[in-house]
Amino acid sequence: MKKYSLKKRVLNIVLILSIVISSVFFSPVFISSAEESSEGTIIRNTTFTSTSEMKKKAKIKNISDWSPLYLTQVENTFWTFASEKEYGQEKLSLNLVKNAYRSLEMMLDNGYTYSYKQLDAYTKEYLQKKEGQKDGFYNILTDCMKNPYIKGHPEAEVTATTYNGRDYSQVFDASYYYNNNPDLQAEIGNDPAKLLKHFVEVGINQGRRGNEAFDVHAYKAAIDQNLQNEILSSELWKSQKKGATAPLAVYSYSLANYYGLFLGHYKYDDDKDASADLNSNKKAPTSNGTYNETSLVSVYTGLPTTSKLANQRPLAVMMPTDAAAQPSYGIGNADILYEIMEEGNISRQMAIINDWQNLKRIGNLRSTRLYYTYASREWDALLVHFGGVFYLKGTIDSPDMNNISGTYEWGTGGAAPGAGYFFRTNDRKAPHNAYISAEGIKKACRKLGYSQSLRSGLYNPKHFTFSKTTNNLSQYPNAQTANTIDLSNVFSYTKSKLTYDAATGTYKKYLHGKAQVDALTGTQLRFTNVLVQNTSWKKMDKKGYLGFNMLDSTRDGYYFTKGKCIHVTWFKSDAYEPTKYFDDNGMEIELNPGKTYIAVAQEGKKVIFK
């Protein structure tokens, strides 16, 4: 049987757990589709649950030395079908501990159940064994030591709904907890904060229920069953000898960790990103305050705007092109609409919306991909999405990247910032029924500390160059007539198309042979400018995930406006730098004031215009 490196093994474990987490349909916030899953097949065997069994399999002589670092004697120990001798390796055991702790997140979810002295002694012993070499695991341990909730065990900061800053309102109702626990009525009284403190520190692990809506035992059963199914369907399990004992699939031996999982508390922290996109990621820039935009000409459309809108950060909203998902709500407010191919031979859209503050329903919402972040950051936008894929790790969770996600932000892990403000409807089936409102976005921004105003150092006011007169491309002798822009070769599933309407001077957008409309207004999408951006790309893995080189200076494309077309080249050097488009004379093109549609095309797939 093929053996995996320890590092690969631990990484794959994290990926599999996250896949399982993503696929469970309990909360309207944490539903995710198969496309958010990732590669990685590794077997997690937790058939042993006793100290003696752990001693036997792990070959750890002094089990008591290890138990403080587990939630129970075998908490979150992830064993693969490695050779027997590998079980005794200290490095493997340490990696298991590292995975179990999720960089301290689970500690906080389990209240004050850890001994600072024991952790301190273990940390010193580990450094001694490493002959003073401070590696990544040592740094995790020392971070744990610095945490004020462990050192000295100070009193937790508790409100009626939050425990040390974590929001428990989805799983806890003080009145329900009070009425259903008579023993606490005399002991604590009807004090919401004290009741929540008891629930987190004592009640959860006692199996007490926090509210009527959430049944942790049913949630646990589903998580564990999905984990079992994942294991039994994996290639690694299928490679085992006939009659092999199936591993017992248990995500955790602490109910607190199921609550933490459901509430999105965990953010995985591995030594290295799973993979890299075609684009190189530079160190994330930082904001140095609010940018004051004085121009009353929209940077997005070149049309007159207000001071409020000029200084308001736009949204970058991920919306599907699936036939079953049409029409989208709020897409008509997009000043700029990107369409890019994804895995599965289907495209997706990202709508840049500057005027969003009054939208009551935005979506439906789908997951994002790494290459969309380069377009999103170009506008210093708030990225609104419903999960993603593991290639996003290290970018989507960087300090500069303000995102609001309905589930794990990079699909197989990460946080779910603002997930509680998404909602689902009954008019469509999942995954085509996830939405958010402007009010929900504003609340998420306040909770997450995101600025709704443009950020100095990150916002760039120099994007498109707009013509001061009507640009009908007559200055270009080689300009061609383009009344129809056929993108069926580029987006073969949607067969996206635009047709020129001379009466309005705009291109009308079509999907699946039908007019693409906004569900809020019923109005067909129209664009003054259309850009086709040929882009180098490659298939990233066996799942079919794609990578697009959004930073380039050697590719070409087309610019369409007023029923005409010219050949262009494009240039983008950094994530926060605007994409610039040039004619064949090397001069930056001038767009007509109005909305713009940008098709990022896989190089080699031809656009047809008539």
How would you describe this structure in keywords?
610 residues; YerB-like fold; eleven-stranded mixed β-sheet; six-stranded antiparallel β-sheet
Explain what you see:
The chain has 610 residues and is an alpha+beta fold. It has four domains: 6-171 and 214-263, no CATH class; 172-213, no CATH class; 307-448, YerB-like (YerB-like fold, 3-Layer(bba) Sandwich); 480-609, YerB-like fold. The chain contains 16 helices and 24 strands. It has helices at residues 6-22, 51-58, 63-66, 90-101, 105-109, 116-129, 136-146, 174-179, 182-187, 192-206, 216-233, 235-238, 255-263, 307-310, 370-378, 438-448, and strands spanning 162-163, 166-167, 315-320, 336-342, 346-353, 362-363, 382-385, 403-405, 422-424, 434-436, 480-481, 484-486, 497-501, 506-511, 514-515, 526-527, 529-535, 537-539, 546-548, 552-561, 564-572, 580-582, 596-602, 608-609. Strands 3, 4, 5, 7, 8, 11, 17, 20, 21, 22 and 23 form an eleven-stranded mixed sheet that branches. Strands 12, 13, 14, 15, 16 and 24 form a six-stranded antiparallel sheet that branches. Helix 1 runs parallel beside helix 4 (90-101) and helix 1 packs across helix 11 (216-233). The longest helix has 18 residues, at 216-233. The chain is elongated. Residues 1-51, 53-115 and 267-277 have low confidence and may be disordered.
